What does this fold into?
Amino acid sequence: AAAAAAAEGAAAAAPPKYWTTVATTTTNSSTGGGGGGGGGGGAYTRVDVTAEFLEKMQLLFDNSSVWVYHDAGAWKNSLGKPTTALTTSPPLIVHGQDNRGLRHSGYKVVSIHRIENAFMWRRYANNRALLVEQAKAAGAKLNNETDVGIHQRVESYAEWQDGDLGVHAAANEAFLIHGTDAGLIDVIAREGIDSRLCGGLFGKGVYLAENVSKSDEYTKADADGVRYLFLCRATIGRPYVHTGNAGQTNAELVKNKKVKLSQLTRAPLHPDTGEPCDSLIHQCRRKHIKVDSASRSWPLKHSEYVVYERSLVYPEFLVGYRRINEQAATR
It folds into this structure.
């Protein structure tokens, strides 16, 4: 039995079958050069998959560059339609708290690389499996909102994620987006996204989005004007769903003591069971709010996903893109 369990665990942590290599040195297949090392991270290979995924990824960019809202458990886009009926009209690409003054009309994907990091994958897969095992032992069902998993209810979902990549629905795994500085690509590919360095309205955690138009806010272009984001596997597990104002306190966060959300270092307690959750989802419930540029009123328009354990996020695809019709920001 022990041998069988060990074999099952090894299989669960094995790299995806569609990977082309299991890296023992840090390389970049698109340039043939090194990508750095050290820092306790894993060696990785950056595999150019642009030809295979360009059309699919461009469609994902187009379909997720809108404001979505959630109402009474229904996940909808800016026209109030379910997320299965995606639309980019009306786009709110340059609207949002951190998008003030930006001037561009869309995004053009120019490159896609898959990050194959065996060490980081084992860490991710093992912790994903452990989360599921712990939930089962506690009698908790991770995916109990609807018969459709979280991964199919986010705007960053595409059918090819199920077909080409496989999604661990039992763990409430989803593909979500993280924007980054071009100078941080190597360290993220080696070591993952460090939750200790990612502070925000909801504390110290890995911040992810379902909309490219949200993650784009946090990118910094390279010398050629190309920006980058990661399409990440994220284990959501049992999420704490927050629908109030980001600055409010919540009596259920830490042992019934009121703590500001910005002070969190782990997911809040579940309001019903009192058990710790695995992540936080901030759902924006505002509908069709027109931005008043004169008064500089910029309401939160994108939902955010925060995973507090860095090992539960795997940055699988590095996507390079350019803003279309970009003009100088006027803030």
In short: Helices lie at 2-13, 50-63, 118-137, 159-165, 185-191, 212-215. The chain has a mean pLDDT of 74.
